[in-house]
Model the fold of this input.
Amino acid sequence: MLSQEINHVLLSQEQIQTRVAELGREISRDYADKTPLVVGILNGSFIFIADLVRNFSFHCQVAFIQVSSYYDDTKGSGSVTIKYDPIGDIEGRDILIIEDIIDSGHTLAALLELLQQRAPASVRLCTLLTKPSRREVDIPVDYCGFEIPDEFAVGYGLDYAGLYRNLPYIGVLNSVV
Ligand code: IMP
Ligand code: MG
Done:
């Protein structure tokens, strides 16, 4: 059974739902008079964004992009390519990026740079999880669900080898190679 592969739960379904509702209220206060484009980063953010936008009390549009990131520790450099990008022209738009987890920060650093080149009016970032102890580049996080320790988390959209995204809570696997 799926749940037997989980060593311990980091965040229960209830903890997540409570925090997502709080984030929704906080973000709703900031965007009360705006109609942002909410951009989810595929695949990990799909469950978070679905729950989060249902707690928004302002108008918004929703779109997704997919990036693939590559980071070479030995060279201290990395690159991010956009694999799926239907959002097109965002000049003058307010953009709210939704991410599942920020680890080293390299993926988002590169993505933020790419989006800034398209001259949006504003870019804010909301992440469900962050691992502060792993950060290698500074990322301006506007809204954050939870800080977690340096453990590999799965569930609620987060995967290991493409699996475990459908768990309703966030946990740590028994063994990760
Ligand atoms: P970063 O560029 O190091 O910040 O990597 C961020 C990406 O790595 C996230 O979008 C996730 O796809 C993946 N990732 C990092 N840590 C975890 C984790 O604990 N569980 C699942 N995916 C993770
Ligand atoms: Mg991701």
Summary: Residues 41, 44, 100 surround magnesium ion (ligand 2) (CB under 6 Å). Residues 34-170 form a domain with the Rossmann fold fold (CATH 3.40.50.2020). The chain has one domain: 34-170. The longest strand covers residues 61-72.
